[in-house]
Amino acid sequence: MFLPERRAGFRAASACVLVAALFGLSGCTTDPAPANGPKHLVQPILRDTQRALVAGRTPSSKPAVLSYCYSNLINTPEQLEVEATEACERMGGRLEFYGEDTVLAPCPLFQPVRATFLCYPPTGRSFDQPQQRLPSIEDPTEEQQRQEDLLRR
């Protein structure tokens, strides 16, 4: 049998755990969460870009894939659109809605739907950096370059 003092202590501990859990859940963001884009969209774009860079060509103007996890209970469609538009405008592109999915989407429990947008670069440009070339085996690393600079002094 519980003594009245023990029962009161148990209730206080239970209340503390409940409050901590609620604070933990309230710490979850209400903003749409950035997510990885669908593989069937992202992988071909990356593969084509890598092939072009290895061949020394400028990658074609492929769109950037922007995906966000959201929930109609937590987020408004306006929030989702604002997030995607701001991200695309920072890249200087044009935004287009692609679609939504929930099956195997890498989204949190409270934001289970992934919305995907395509951000197209301006005509004649690419989001990739074609002027950056891939390092070859002969290229010195930054550390090797620093060591050579020190030896020259």
Describe the structure.
With about 150 residues, this protein is α+β, with helices and mostly antiparallel strands. The chain has a domain at about 30-130. Helices cover about 40% and strands about 15% of the residues. It contains four helices and four strands; from the N terminus they run H-E-H-E-H-E-E-H. It is extended, with a radius of gyration of 25 Å. It starts with a helix and ends with a helix.
Descriptive tags:
4 strands, four-stranded antiparallel β-sheet, 153 residues, alpha+beta, extended
First and last CA, distance: 83 Å
Helix count from the secondary structure assignment: 4
Shape: extended
Q: What percent strand? A: 15-25%
Order of helices and strands: HEHEHEEH
What are the segments in which pLDDT stays under 50 over at least 5 consecutive residues?
A: 19-27, 129-138
Helix content: 40-55%
Strand order of the largest sheet: 1-2-4-3
Query: Whole-number average pLDDT?
Result: 75
What is the total tally of β strands? Answer: 4
Main sheet overview: 4 strands, antiparallel
Radius of gyration: 25 Å
Judged by helices, strands and strand pairing, the structural class is: alpha+beta
List the helices and strands and how they pair.
Elements: H1 4-26, E1 33-35, H2 39-54, E2 64-70, H3 77-91, E3 94-101, E4 113-120, H4 142-152
